[in-house]
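Title: Prediction job returns without error message
Component: structure pipeline
Severity: low
Priority: P3
Assignee: unassigned

Description:
Job completed but the reporter wants confirmation the result is attached to the right record. Sequence as submitted:
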Amino acid sequence: MVRLRERRCRRGGVEPARPAERRAHPAAAPTGNRAVRRIALLVVLAVAAADLLPLGLVLKQAFTPERESFAWPPTWLPRTLTLENVRTLREAVEIEGGLGLSALVAALTVAATLAIALPAAWVAARRPAVDRGLDRALVFARLFPTIALAIPLAALSIRVGLYNSPLGTGLWLAHTLLALPVAFLVLRGGFRSVPVELEEAARLDGASTAGAFWRVSLPLVRPSLAAASMLVFLVSWDEFGFSLLLQVTNRPLPPLVYYLTAFGHPGLASAVAALMLVPAVGVLLVLEPALRAGVFAGSGR
């Protein structure tokens, strides 16, 4: 319309459109963008509140007297802060043994899972035929619920002498099987982002296949390696079903939360849950620089 008016003006017709008319339509766009941003912000805040509210209630119960846990109507904010639950916890259960066992099992699970998943993910990323077979096997393994696998694994561990091991041997083997699909999928995505030409160039320079993997591909997937390590650690650290059935007396932390809750001690159970948060947050903080380095796009190609 503006061009038509200008054309007529050059022929001696109508005068050109004023600048205000030309800018009339684009000015309406920012209003819609602001509305979309506000809705997105509200959704993010609602999701964050849904995630943080249970965490806040756990911390409240851990550091307030148990009478507040049973108060009616319930109190959402702490009235009296105390370390009574933390002190009583050491007398009620073997918290040091449970903490040490959970940390040992999680560390061994991370090491065993990465030792298996790293070469498997690299081969799958480079050979599509192998990738399809591994994909089907891992998806099929994850179809079974934990309890369906825990009972036969408990029977098998009894036969081979790994049941209720003080070092949690049967438990970390079970956790390795549980965490393998998670680590494999994360690492395979990392290796797929590494150009094959880099490995081919290393082999042309005289490196072996293993050397190209170790010196070229592995350093470039450090963000994926950090993410896989963190996820595997959390899978083992928080896992409940195998821990309950495979460790009857030498118990890691998750079954302790269950037993204390079942016997009517929500404050002590919340103290154990709060204790479990500390290593999980610590692992996240340690691996955070490697996760940030995930912007490796274009950094060595």
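Comment from assignee: result matches the submitted record. The mean pLDDT is 81.
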